[in-house]
Amino acid sequence: MGKLSKAEIKAHAEAEALLGKDVLSEDEKDFVLENWHPGAENNVAAAGAFFTPTDLAADFALEPGQGRVIDLCAGIGGLAYWVRQRSKWRGEVELTCVEINPRFVEIGRMLLPEARWICADVLDWRQWWKEELAGTMFDWAIANPPFGKLATSGGRRGFKSFEFAVIDVASQIADNGVFILPQASSSFRYSGCLCFERLTSGPGVEFKQRTGLFMECGIGIDTSICRDQWRGVAPLCDIVTMEFAEWRERRQARVLADKSEQLVLL
Q1: With 80 as the cut, is the pLDDT of residue 226 above it?
Q2: Quick one: average pLDDT of 1-25?
Q3: How confident is the model at residue 210 (pLDDT cuts 50, 70, 90)?
Q4: Is-contact 118 132, C-beta < 8 A?
Q5: How far are the Cα atoms of 8, 100, 224 from residue 59, in angstroms, in the given order?
Q6: Helix, strand, or coil (residue 218)
Q7: Domain 48-265 maps to which CATH number in 3.40.50.300, 3.20.20.70, 3.40.50.261, 3.40.50.150?
Q8: What gap in Å lies between CA 73 and CA 121, rounded to an integer?
Q9: How open is the CA angle 4-6-12, to the nearest 5 degrees?
Q10: pLDDT in tens, 57-116
Q11: Residue 126's closest CA among 135, 137, 139, 138?
């Protein structure tokens, strides 16, 4: 990742000054989301922490519905912020944000005080889910997770890429999921392509074969339009939607069937 430009440094300093206030207006929150740069204070490349561009976050927020929503790897809350904005017309949401970086959480609480913020490693989900949330199930899990092979704590269950590990967590605690994934990790191609293409090989297909979880493209948002708006990178991504509730039911039915078969054999 390259150094910040003079304009980025100036805008970041202005955003930092705003964060010194007790309460921010909606316009001030928008300014911070647009201009507070994680690369000014953190090694975002090492952590894979690249914030979602505002236009993409606003479009992304069209995907999840109402109800209880949890943002995994929330950063400073860009995705959750826009889900709340959309909820004014689409139905109420109850937001929870989980983020490991304490500074990001501090800022997130100023930008989105309506949400419940948990400072924790997303992959330590069994701990914070039970201790902080008493095992509450969510209607939706959303995430722009760090991409790639990163050093993480336990709980990955052998998944090679962080984004797949985050989806695995989401599948345990939510009925539906919406994720921004690098196109190389998806089981389809849509953004930046002439037409939708379902793949027959690759990491996304292997993930589906291993877990039984199926990736869809939701309402069909072409993320390539916002490719040059990322800060410090220009990833080609796709927005992936997934259903978890029915998948859990099918998995449980298979477990019960296997147990019944074993009893018959005995």
Answers
A1: yes
A2: 89
A3: very high
A4: yes
A5: 24, 25, 12
A6: coil
A7: 3.40.50.150
A8: 8
A9: 70
A10: 999 999 999 999 999 999 999 999 999 999 988 889 999 999 999 999 999 999 999 999
A11: 135
Looking up tokens 């939607």 gives 241
pTM of the model: 0.91
Q: Which amino acid, one-letter code, is at 140? A: W
* CA dihedral angle for residue 202, residue 230, residue 149, residue 178, rounded to 10 degrees: -60
**Band of the pLDDT at 234, cuts 50, 70, 90?**
confident
Angle at CA of residue 52, ends 124 and 24, nearest 5°: 90
Rg of the chain on CA atoms, in Å: 19
Q: H or E element: which one contains 116?
A: strand 116-119
User: Dihedral of CA 153/155/160/163: which sign?
Assistant: negative
Domain range summary for the chain, segments of one domain joined by +: 48-265
Question: How long a stretch of residues is the chain?
Answer: 266
Give the CB-side neighbour count of residue 246, counting CA atoms within 13 A: 6
